[in-house]
Design a protein that fits this description.
By secondary structure, the protein is α+β, with helices and mostly antiparallel strands. The chain is about 40% helix and about 10% strand. The protein has a 5-stranded mixed beta sheet. Strands 6-7 form a two-stranded antiparallel sheet. The termini are far apart.
Length: about 280
Amino acid sequence: MKRLRRKPHVNHERWLVSYADFITLMFAFFVVLYASSQTDMRKQAQVAHAINQAFKALGLFQPASSADSAATSHDTPVTPVNIVIGDALSAAPSAAVRADFERMRHELQSRLSNQIAEHVVALHIGREGLVISLREAGFYDSGSTVPHPGSIGSIDSIVSVLRPTPYDIRIEGHTDNVPIHTSEFSSNWELSAGRATRMTRLFIERFQFEPRRLSAAGYGEYNPVAANDTPEGRGQNRRVDIIVLPAINGIPQTTDLAARPQASESKASPAELRPSGK
């Protein structure tokens, strides 16, 4: 008796294999785009390693030996990608820069000990660099951009520490959230920008600070350091921040200063106001 041959089963879902490969590649592509927009170099290295492993799983790259992969992960440096997001630098400063910032902070603490004790000056090293906060109570009249004559000595002490260094300086104006409307300023934006640019001008004209190292920015009420629901909090928010950036002529210092050549021209973000020095 002749047996009937069964027709081979046609798999109508083979397209899922190609579709899955395509989705994996698209995922890897968007992960690369996302990673390139981030500021954490360690995370970028981790993402790059994960993508490399994903491509190896697809058979697109030949897997390396365990010894080679260990050498790659530990010995090969990751090339830094310097991206500016708002005002934050993408790469962490070198050990030499951090040590220099600590030295400047200790020297400023010694010179401004009275002002720090009176809570009109605050110092800290943050994500962006060394921050010197000048509170309105010790440096300005309400609604004015001109520092008190009695505060010039404090500013002179700050400049004497910062001027010999090679780092870029950004001067930021900040206010509380109480609206202002005067004949000179119609908003907190204008007041904060006016204080920042006036301080920048003071650095240049009175203290002969190099103009290309300076930039000014006004943030209004939108970058507070304390809540605005108490007089003390509003007093902390009314300030001018002098930020020593871990950058020289716009180049982030991610290696030792002695090994990095200085650029011939500086760059500023579009939101910054740079004085011409004229």
